[in-house]
Structure formats: C-alpha cells, structure tokens
Amino acid sequence: MDVLNLLFGSAPGIGLATVAVTVAAGFVQGVTGLGFAAVFTPLVVLIAPYPHQVVVLSLFLGAVLSLGVLVQCRRDLQLPRCWPLLAGGLIGTPAGIAVLIVLPARLLMQAIAVLALLVAATGLIGLPRPFRHEQAAVGSAGLFGGFLNGSTSLGGLPPALLVSIQRWPAAHGRAALVAFNLASYLLALASVALTGTVAADIVLGGLWLLPAAALGALLGTVAARRLPDPVFRMALLGVIGASGVAALLTSLRP
To answer: Where are the transmembrane segments (predicted)?
Structure first.
C-alpha cells in the first residue's frame, strides 16, 4: 500500500484528517509565505508512515500554492535584496535530494526537529542583531534552506530565521520566502522526476488535495494583510517551533 491508497482508500476519518491538515498547512503558507511543508509533512507522516512519498506530495502541493501566493504579492518582492536567497536555494536543493535518497527518513526528521526547536528557542529568548553583511547571510540561509528542502521538504526554516533577524518588513519578507519556496520546490520536483525517486502517480494524486490547500492559502492571504511586522515575526517563529515538535513526534513513531 502507498500513501495515496492509505489516505483516500482507508477509513473516512483518515481522509478527513488529511484534508484538515492540508487546509491548515495552506493557511500557514498564505499568512507567512512558507510553512506548508512544515505543517503538512510531519503531520501527514503521522497519519501515513511513508515519509519519502509524503515529502514529494508536500513538494508538489507547496509549489502550486507558492505560485499562487507569489502572483498575489509579486509587487512586494525586492529582488536586489533577496536574490542571494534564491541562488542559494537553487544550489542547495540538489544536494538535499541526494541525501533524501541515501539517508534513513527517521534520521532526517530527527535532525530537522532539533534544528527547528533550537531556532524557535533562539527567537523566543531574543533575536540577535541584524547581520552587517546581509547578502552573505541571505545566501547562506538560502543554501542551507535549499538543502533541507530537498531532503525533508522543510527548507523554509533558515530563510525564515534570517528574515526575522534582519527585521525585514512583513510584506517584503513574505514575498521573499514564497519566492524561495517556489524555486526550491520546483527544483526538488525536477530532481525527483529525473532520479525516479517516487512514482509520478504520487504527484498526480496530490490534485485531490489541491482544493483544500487552496482554500487554506486564500484564508491565510486575507489574514496576512492585517498582520503588523512584530506579529508576522512571531508567526514565523511559531511555525518553526510547531514544525520541530511535529517532526520530533514523527521521528519517534515506531
């Protein structure tokens, strides 16, 4: 049995739970510009224990949502400031795909859980001062984020922390993060297709969840327009911390 048969061919409660998780993940994506995979991947793996297939399903849904959100906030995208983020993601994602193929999924989820919880704790204690050499810091966050995106589909954590540390305005940070996510998602999907890591029917099966994801993203986009900058930064840290807890629970599952 694969992930799609388990989600849609088993008890109705499993399918409803998956739809609810998808709506919630879409809402987070719409509010912050990232976070779909941070919510979707760990929670769906708890429902259907097929981590590698869930990662690919998450990449597909996240890419479609990111495209829609980017169209909506395209005027807020500051390319002179965020291009190193995009470049780093394009370089780091193929390396993450290679790790996804080789390393056990449990080890990957444990690593991302520890990282996410450390990042969230750092933000709650107090964000450090903005980096003086911003472009170097932005590029490093993109590189590490791309690696994590290719290996776990949770690559938004380093860019989210960077946006919070640099105190970017909410609209600019959201646009930069969604552009990063879209570029990384598309590259990861292309790499998966070329390597044959997961069958194409997993991606096509994601079409069943697109309406739920789109509904959540639409609600999140409406909510994002009313968020002041400090609340936006706290929302980012909340997404990071929640993803760490969910990833830890997933990795401890027998």
So the answer is: 6-24, 54-71, 83-102, 108-127, 175-196, 202-224, 231-252
H-assigned helices in 33-169: 36-47, 51-72, 79-102, 105-125, 134-152, 157-165
CA distances from 25 to 28, 50, 199 (A): 5, 19, 24
Buried b (16+ CB within 10 A) or exposed e, 79-105: eeebbbbbbbbbebbbebbebbeeeeb
| 238-241-244 Cα angle (round to 5) | 150
- DSSP class of residue 2 equals -
Rounded to 5 degrees, φ, ψ at 132 are -70, -40
- pLDDT digit string, tens, across residues 138-183: 999 888 888 877 776 667 778 887 887 888 887 888 888 888 888 8
pLDDT in tens, 33-65: 777 877 787 778 777 766 777 777 888 888 888
pTM of the predicted protein model: 0.72
User: In the block, which residue shows the tokens 């998966």?
Assistant: 192
Cα–Cα distance measured from residue 237 to residue 128, given in angstroms and rounded to the nearest whole number = 14
Closest CA to 159 of 219, 71, 211, 93: 93
CA distances in angstroms from 21 to 15, 42, 89, 119, listed in the order given: 10, 10, 26, 23
Three-state DSSP class for 218? Answer: helix
- How many whole angstroms separate alpha carbon 139 and alpha carbon 91? 10
